[in-house]
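Hi R.,

Here's the chain you asked about this morning:
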Amino acid sequence: MASTPSTRRSEAVEVPLLPGIEMESAAGREADGRAGSGSNGASARSTDTYDADSIETLEGLEAVRKRPAMYIGGNGSEGLMHLVWEIVDNAVDEAAAGFGRKVDVTLRRDGSIEVSDNGRGIPVGKHPDRDVSALEVVFTELHAGGKFGEGAYKASGGLHGVGASVVNALSTRLDVEVRRDGFVHELSFKDQAPGHFAGGGGDGFVPGSDVRPSTRRTKTTGTKVRFWPDMALFHPDASIDADEVRGRVKQMCYLVPGLKMTVADHRPGESAESLEFVSRGGLADLVKERSERSGGDAVSGVVTINGIERFTEKVPVDGKITEVERECTVDVALRWMAGYDSDVESFVNTIPTSSGGTHLAGFDKALTRVVNGVLLKDNRKLARLARDSSGAGAKNARSSAAKTNATKDDVREGLVAAVKVQFSEPQFRGQTKQELGTPAVEGIVARITYEQLKEWFEPGGGPRSQVKAIGDKVAAAVVNRVASKQMLDTKRKAASLGSTGMPDKLADCRVRGDRAELILVEGDSAAGPAKRGRDSEFMAILPLRGKIVNASKASPKQVLDNAEAQAIFTAMGAGAGDAFDIEAARYGRIVILCDADVDGSHIRCLLLTLIHGYMREMLVQGRVFSAQPPLYTARVGDRTYRAYSDEERDRITGELCRGSRRPENVKWQRFKGLGEMNTDELRHCALDPDTRTLRRLTMSDAQQADAAAEMFDVLMGSDVAVRRDYLVENSSLVDEATLDI
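And here is the predicted structure, written out as tokens:
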């Protein structure tokens, strides 16, 4: 590789990738305005006072009423439904723990919701640390419940101890009836305050913390909760969807085999008929029902997987971080259908996790691994596809084999599955419990799923006809995906290439190899002088129109879809990303030629970021350069002087005026862009190997460019809110004396 050409200038030039940018400080403007506003400024300061009196504390359930979305996910129908689930989940937890086998959900005519179970009943005795009953504590204090350790519940859905109290906080009234110790105990809440309603009606509320034992004796146990949501806190259109309640209740019966649940809707205009649900087969019944609902033919029967593993995690116990051991039970049911849509659900204890989490990640990882390593190991269709795609060479063969491996989407095509894990104190991301975050569960689910599916796929496991049908279906998905990608790539290439097979705007050179250069020029205006001033034997010119994609933020698909990035990859002819092969490159070096201003620096940063992400070996081997066009030029006598910054211009002026020459006689011309240079000027400063200045760019420069490209997007992008936030946050760092305000 040739070294960087020398220059006739006496001093090397270093042009920063990101020039200094002067910003007006928002805080400075505000302070300046207050200083000159007289009494108005004093008034502004008084309203902005931030002292001890500014700190508010929200007592009890007040925080829930002020910020309900933090606890129930929103104030629309989904938040209203979440109140129902909090109470229903508590009842189902009793059944899942082995206490009680029946839960009834009733939607009343007056807008209240009633949930009754035959579990043990909430304790009604005096709480050891409070001067009130345990029942009152459960419904009035956040983070109070019996599910924090492994005492009352080994595995439960309600874990944060806020469910019952949140329902009370967002209700105008809540009645609790507990059947326990041979008696019926009652307690009501009006606007979150405990007491009793005289005669059970809506009038005559008597405040008080005593749990009132009824004169009725009973041999049964259980809890009945009835609550009236405070609709003033919810959107006017928020409502309880009976069909959604039935669907969720039916789902819970699959999660707790043997649990009988009923739903009755007594609201005006609805059928009061009670619907009953019960399941004996658990997740297998769920997968069978959902696959039959989807229609189409089944490729396989329902495959069930289950196992138990133990893991340890560190949690606070009595104020100290302690390592505790957990037992995790894994249950999976799955089958493949002939269609293309996937239907995969996940659960933790009795809670659906709509956003997945570590348990679903472990399932997907194991499923993809076992399909590629066992099911498709000797698949002839994929082996032929890999050979057809590889061409010559072992390296290409290995690359093609990797590309023909099944992806998660390939494996999930037509898959109907349910994944459930049970263990105590799972860590969720958020109160609404939509995503599991416990790290150890991923490995447990992955190991159990892999081992049992491996056994089912291998000879002697599942029916061979079903195993073969699944293999053929997944292989067909891989073939279709590869074929679709090849077709798309062909269309993209055809759209961006001219009759020569190269981008239309590329002015190619006659010789290729290590000596050849691909010069990336900013804009069409500079492309004309560059093409005329180059040495066409080894210099190729590729003009770039507009800002190139920011490869540090964009996805690979967005990068490959970008027309300018496509043109660069096509001209280099060596691929992109992991497939980039520097030995196949048509040019030995890349030279970036941009204006010596802020826009030019931005484009240079974006190009360097693209090369760093998708043609990294060019940087590693030192084959990327930046041409350094001057910002100013002046001719004194028969000699031309060039300056690359304001400071350098002033320094050269000072040196030229040491004698009798006056500074105003040194006429500097400022170039706004490369397009203002004539052919000779551009050739001399950026194209002629004997006179130009090139800066070799390194991996360190590329890393700085990534950060600089991000900063350009903040300061010069279209998102005004992001730019405003940045200026406000950093205004204290700006010297107000430097601002033009």
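One quick note: Residues 473 and 638 are 78 Å apart (CA to CA).

Cheers,
M.
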